[in-house]
Design a protein that fits this description.
The chain is of the alpha/beta class and about 550 residues long. It is built from 17 helices and 20 strands.
Length: about 550
């Protein structure tokens, strides 16, 4: 069977646009001799639709969109598989189903519903959908096609230990006599995810001795980024077709001959994260109707990286940098910011905040009388910078990109209504050590854009004389190692201390900082997820809580 992998970038809720996109890809696939084109999970809707599903008009609109797709491809000599939100026939439970339709000749030949509804990390499908009780094969000529929807293929008992579900929809379909497995996905990117998919599908192909086609969505939708990277494997688990990462693509594979297009541009993980952030930023802005971005340029490594990423995402003509020197800003900070802006060719402004800071401190002098200057005075500077950026944003309609990295946000080394002000937290899931790696990648794409002095100077918020990040935090390589285990793997402080060989009190201090700053993170701008566990919708901790695992375990160990 000649199958086309339709790796598309749909927009959530744009039913007309998504149907048009599917139709265009289907016509291209037909011209290339495909007998079947397969689109990603919820391709008609875009993933994730979240609570749009609860709108009374949404499900009927989806059903109508599927019929329009059938009509628009009726004259093509191929079948179409597309995901959509369907209506449940069950008398109890949710009214919506995560479904796929098989179309040919203007007709809906078959509908398949998803069985396994994930509720971990960024997923919460059980909130909106009702699961199917069973699935059936689609007989196309002499071929029995086993069609599964994303999570249904992610529970192989020979690959996952332990498994999340008791049922294995793939096994159930293959026992019915499946000749080929087709898996439609909306599988978000994170570091290591592409290799994981390869390993999982390879294991599945070898287990059943059947070819597997895996089609994945590409593009950014709010917090999540989909890398595409669709592929097909033969019955022995050999890769026979592959699509690009982080771009729309149309790949043709002949499962009979085992020959297919090999378009994969499988970049290393640092390059992949860079591409993911560019794609996520571009789609967030475009799908929300924005064109221009605004960045506070401090001359530091974080804002420098954000500026380079922004140029790649929306073009230098749509990026504006603003330096806002304060009473403790160093000369080299403004110089480095100006130098980088000139090298990138972006608009650059300098707006000093010292006069406003002096006036604000005089205004508060009576209230602050008798107290020692400290964090409150420091944060006035950060908030004046936030006010400045948001004022420019309101005037010109440019979205402010915040510049805080994951390491700082994790421990609360950021200011509410100050450097946290903005519309998108571009690098909020990027640890500080990775910021440097990505900045080197940015300089490979824009030679010399980030001055070398930015890489070598000690990180500083410059809110007091001679301030350095190391005054308040451990070295970033140490901090990031702790945070990876605590935030992404949920390890206890005692376990982390033992594994990394670090003092228990140091790990305890970092862990408590993470716990106590949940209130800040839940007021942050939406961020782009690139690690296995990002702050945001995939990590749901209460703000008001008194569970102190670390303290209890320390007491037990003493």
């Amino acid at each position: 069977m000649r199958i086309a992998l339709g790796q598309i970038n749909p927009t959530v809720g744009d039913l007309v646009g998504n149907v048009s996109l599917c139709t265009r890809f289907a016509r291209d696939a037909a011209e290339r001799g495909a007998e079947l084109i397969v689109f990603p999970e919820l391709s008609v809707t875009g993933y994730p639709p979240r609570d749009l599903v609860e709108k009374h008009t949404f499900i009927p609109a989806n059903e109508e969109a599927v019929l329009r797709l059938a009509e628009s491809t009726a004259d093509l000599p191929l079948a179409v598989i597309a995901g959509y939100v369907g209506h449940s026939e069950k008398s109890v439970g949710k009214r919506a189903t995560n479904s796929a339709a098989i179309l040919r000749g203007g007709q809906v030949l078959m509908r398949q519903q998803k069985i396994l509804l994930p509720t971990y990390d960024v997923f919460d499908e059980a909130r909106n959908f009702v699961p199917a009780d069973k699935q059936t094969l689609w007989r196309d000529g002499d071929t029995n096609v086993a069609l599964t929807i994303c999570e249904d293929a992610w529970n192989d008992k020979l690959f996952w230990h332990p498994r999340l579900y008791s049922r294995d929809p793939v096994e159930e379909l293959m026992l019915q006599g499946g000749d080929i497995l087709v898996s439609i996905n909306a599988s978000p990117f994170h570091i290591g995810k592409r290799e994981l998919r390869y390993d999982m599908i390879r294991s599945m192909a070898r287990r059943y001795g059947k070819p597997v086609v895996m089609v994945n969505q590409v593009g950014g939708n709010d917090h999540v980024i989909f890398d595409g990277s669709s592929f097909a494997m033969d019955a022995a688990g050999n890769l026979i077709a592959s699509a690009k990462s982080f771009a729309e693509d149309l790949v043709i594979v002949d499962t009979g001959t085992g020959i297919g297009d090999r378009n994969a541009d499988f970049p290393g993980e640092t390059e992949a994260v860079y591409e993911a952030l560019v794609l996520g930023t571009r789609d967030y802005l475009a799908k929300c109707g924005f064109r221009q971005v605004l960045i506070g340029l401090s001359g530091g490594i974080d804002s420098s990286l954000v500026a380079v990423l922004a140029v790649d995402a929306v073009g230098k003509e749509n990026v504006r940098g603003v330096a806002m020197p304060g009473p403790y800003s160093s000369d080299h900070s403004v110089r480095d910011a100006r130098d980088m802006a000139e090298r990138l060719g972006i608009q650059f402004d300098i707006i000093p905040i010292t006069p406003a800071y002096d006036e604000m401190t005089r205004t508060l002098a009576g209230v602050f009388a008798g107290t020692k200057p400290g964090v409150a005075e420091e944060n006035i500077q950060a908030r004046l910078r936030g006010l400045t950026l948001m004022s420019i944003s309101n005037k010109f309609g440019a979205v402010v990109l915040t510049t805080g990295n994951k390491s700082e946000i994790a421990v609360g080394y950021c200011t509410l209504y100050g450097d946290m002000c903005g519309g998108l937290a571009l690098i909020s899931d990027v640890p500080k050590t990775m910021v440097y790696e990505l900045s080197r990648e940015g300089n490979r794409r824009h030679p010399g854009a980030i001055p070398e002095s930015v890489f070598v100077k000690p990180p500083s918020a410059e809110l007091r004389p001679d301030q350095k990040d190391s005054d308040s935090l451990p070295p970033y390589d140490t901090l990031d190692a702790i945070l990876r285990l605590y935030v992404e793997e949920f390890r206890s402080a005692a376990e982390i201390s033992a594994e990394l060989g670090l003092p228990l009190e140091l790990v305890k201090d970092v862990a408590l900082k993470v716990d106590r700053n949940e209130y800040k993170r839940q007021q942050a701008a939406p961020g782009l997820k690139v690690t296995s566990k990002a702050f945001g919708i995939g990590r749901r901790f209460p703000i008001a809580q008194r569970y102190q695992e670390n303290l209890q375990r320390y007491q037990e160990n003493q």
